[in-house]
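In the design runs reported in the main text, the only information available to the sequence generator was the tokenized backbone. The following block is the verbatim input for one such run; it is reproduced so that readers can re-run the procedure and compare outputs position by position.
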């Protein structure tokens, strides 16, 4: 059986969980916070999560894991078979990560845990998020899914990136980020109503207190 290293509050971990759920892949969760211990670095070269242990070895980087699961397991397709359309989904995945998830992540500590950030960082993040969501709006279709009529890996990445980015934008900049992309709010609501997403959301809620305690210790060091 596949082993998935990570924790239920991690949005990247939850991207893989959602993909596995949609494709009905059994996966054993190995609850792991990012760390630099020799034992975990032997599994994940960066010490980050998620890491997927397969019979052939370990894979890291979420987009790589999503592609591996789609290519090696039956069920719902997360990427189209036609080369150009497949490339378009990969493009959307990359855009969401580069222009929404990663900029917002720079301000997670302040937005979610009250750790003050630098003003210059917040200015950069605000500009990056606005430019990013507008670029995504131009590239996406939201009809009803981000890439068209079928759900794809891009929707999974959107689901677990857009909610956090929107919260950062609202709390720190008083911006309704998803209003910049017509159809984005409706898609996020649709995805959150999926049974698989509700199970993951429940697990996330249950894991949050332990994660907050872990972070509090980390911030005190």
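Verbatim output:
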């Amino acid at each position: 059986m596949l082993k998935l290293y990570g924790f239920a509050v991690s949005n990247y971990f939850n991207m893989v969980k959602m993909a596995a759920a949609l494709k009905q892949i059994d996966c054993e969760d190995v609850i792991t916070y990012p760390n630099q211990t020799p034992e975990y670095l032997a599994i994940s070269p960066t010490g980050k999560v998620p890491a997927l242990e397969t019979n052939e070895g370990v894979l890291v980087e979420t987009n790589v894991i999503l592609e591996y699961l789609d290519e090696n397991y039956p069920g719902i397709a997360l990427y189209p078979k036609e080369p150009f359309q497949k490339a378009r989904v990969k493009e959307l995945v990359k855009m969401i990560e580069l222009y929404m998830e990663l900029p917002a992540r720079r301000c997670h500590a302040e937005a979610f845990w009250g750790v003050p950030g630098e003003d210059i960082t917040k200015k950069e993040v605000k500009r990056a998020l606005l430019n990013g969501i507008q670029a995504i709006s131009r590239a996406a279709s939201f009809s009803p899914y981000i890439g068209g009529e079928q759900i794809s890996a891009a929707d999974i990445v959107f689901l677990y990136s857009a909610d956090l980015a929107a919260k950062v934008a609202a709390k720190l900049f008083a911006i309704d980020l998803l209003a910049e992309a017509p159809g984005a709010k409706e898609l996020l609501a649709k995805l959150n109503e999926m049974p698989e997403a509700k199970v993951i959301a429940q697990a996330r809620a249950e894991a949050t207190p332990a994660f907050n305690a872990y972070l509090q210790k980390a911030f005190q060091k």
